């Protein structure tokens, strides 16, 4: 019996190219496969279909909750997908984490005109807004938030507290359901920038 290689040189070259392919590497870098016993995988798959699952991380005075989606692939392997987290901070009471913006973000009218209002701090449900023209911030607004490098996010704001003649705290809600996810993505981006400093 001769000692012939199992793969030809061309086959080895093809496999090496496949493994070095950026599309393949990028795909595998973003997927997470869950290794566990078959019984645990079955339990998790059933929970994934019938329950809302989250992964919780506690870092310092912050708590992050990542919504989870579990799926079984065609080989019955369980895959885990993490969605954008909600970030909370602990104090006297736990509340959504607020990002203090180095550069305030402008609130823009539907016609694209800049308003006199600027967001100084933002959380998933609130914002600290200043007026740069010396006027008192309004009771309510429906304006767009100019996101860095993106289109603006439409927000509804209701004044909760007046902090000074030109500064007020608002309860905010995105005008569209997809805006909630975009706002959470912005907060994750801001937190990552804060941690990098």
Uncertain stretches: 24-29
Largest sheet: 6 strands, antiparallel
- Determine the fraction of residues in helical runs and give it as a percent range: 25-40%
How many structurally independent domains?
A: 2
- Share of residues in strands: 35-45%
Protein name: PilZ domain-containing protein
Task: Please provide a brief summary of the model.
The protein is α+β, with helices and mostly antiparallel strands. It has helices at 9-20, 22-30, 38-50, 177-196; strands at 32-33, 53-59, 62-72, 78-82, 86-89, 95-96, 99-108, 114-122, 126-131, 140-145, 153-164, 167-174. The chain is elongated, with a radius of gyration of 24 Å.
What would your notes on this structure say?
- With 197 residues, the chain is α+β, with helices and mostly antiparallel strands.
- It has two domains: 32-83, no CATH class; 98-196, Thrombin, subunit H, CATH 2.40.10.
- 27% of the residues lie in helices and 42% in strands.
- The protein is built from four helices and twelve strands, in the order H-H-E-H-E-E-E-E-E-E-E-E-E-E-E-H.
- It has helices spanning 9-20, 22-30, 38-50, 177-196; strands at residues 32-33, 53-59, 62-72, 78-82, 86-89, 95-96, 99-108, 114-122, 126-131, 140-145, 153-164, 167-174.
- Strands 1, 2, 3, 4, 5 and 6 form a six-stranded antiparallel β-sheet that branches.
- A hairpin with a 5-residue loop joins strand 5 and strand 6.
- It is elongated, with a radius of gyration of 24 Å.
- It starts with 8 loop residues before the first helix and ends with a helix.
- Mean pLDDT is 82; it is low at 24-29.
């Amino acid at each position: 019996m001769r000692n012939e290689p199992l793969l030809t040189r061309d086959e080895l070259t093809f496999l090496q190219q496949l493994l070095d392919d950026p599309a393949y590497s990028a795909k595998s870098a973003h997927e997470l496969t869950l290794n566990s016993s078959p019984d645990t995988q079955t339990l998790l798959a059933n929970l994934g279909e019938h329950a809302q699952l989250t992964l919780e991380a506690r870092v310092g005075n912050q708590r992050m909750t990542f919504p989870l989606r579990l799926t079984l692939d065609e080989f019955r392997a369980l895959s885990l997908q993490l969605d954008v987290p909600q970030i909370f901070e602990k104090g006297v009471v736990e509340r959504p984490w607020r990002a203090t913006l180095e550069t305030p973000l402008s609130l823009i009218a539907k016609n694209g005109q800049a308003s006199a209002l600027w967001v100084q701090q933002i959380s998933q449900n609130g914002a600290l807004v200043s007026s740069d023209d010396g006027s008192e911030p309004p009771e309510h607004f429906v304006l767009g938030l100019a996101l860095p490098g993106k289109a603006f996010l439409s927000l509804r704001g209701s004044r909760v507290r007046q902090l000074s003649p030109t500064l007020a705290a608002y309860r905010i809600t995105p005008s569209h359901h997809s805006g909630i996810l975009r706002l959470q993505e912005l907060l994750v981006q801001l937190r990552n920038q804060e941690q990098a400093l």
